[in-house]
Amino acid sequence: MGDFVFNERVRSKKAEIQTLLKLAEKLKDSENAETKNLLGQAFLKKGMYDEAISEFEEAIILDSRVSGLYNSLGSAYMAVGRHDEAVAVLEQAINLKPERADYYNNLGVAYLKKERCKKAVERFQRAIDINPYYADACFNLALALVLNGATKEDFALSVNCQQRVMENLEKAAKINPQYKNEHTSRGEELLKRNDYEKAYAAFTQGQRSVSKPADLGFVIDFYLQVIYNSKKLNSAAIWRHIRQLQDVIEKHPNYADLYNHLGVAYVIMSKFVNNKAVQQFEKAQQINPAFDRAKRNQKLAEYDRKGAQLLFDAILK
Description:
With 317 residues, this protein is mainly alpha-helical. Helices cover 78% and strands 0% of the residues. Helix 3 (49-62) runs antiparallel to helix 4 and helix 8 runs antiparallel to helix 9 (161-175).
């Protein structure tokens, strides 16, 4: 039974990848940045980093004003070890939208990968200044301080190092209790013995043990279906997507992106229902061409549909 389930999952994953590759080939000549972005996000979620990088780079050529493209490209670069390039594009993301805490956190991670502890600390601190409840940034700040203790890159960061590390670890654990686990506890003990190198390894392992929000690849797949396969979309599929998002929100109630995606889903449902309404008003007039009320209602529905389309186009940018 176990082998059967495993093989089914493998076949399902393979089918998803083949479908995505076919779609990417079909849309390779697209000049729409959002198309490239969605494809890049889909590849990124499936761990196909080279393909994701290609889509994000093309999207930026098409529209260099979208900060999220640089942030996503930075994540893809880091996944394949291209940290210098990740730093460069993440800096561009911040230049475009300096109020995004996650951009500073991601840039801090890129600097941490390069063992540039001082720069990493500065970026993580900036992320916390923007969002004081950013658990990941608090923990990453502690990590950067511990790594600096091991590499001795910056003397100033070593002043009151252990106290600052513990303060940020405690803050991260208060916001997200999963940050208090057996690995981080071992890291704290190693830190007390001034064994920074082993403490850093333990904290890193502890960070990997923290469960992240559920894989949101299904959201990207849904958006691609809505935009490029809308004829096959029906109310049942939209409601399934809404319920799936609601289930994830129950498990991760403090993840803002989930509520945004749920809002988008309701807009899509509204748009779908509106199209159905217009079809019914048209049918009424086919039966009775003199049905003025149906004609008026159709105009009102079409006006609402234009507004829903404008909203839909805006929220996917």
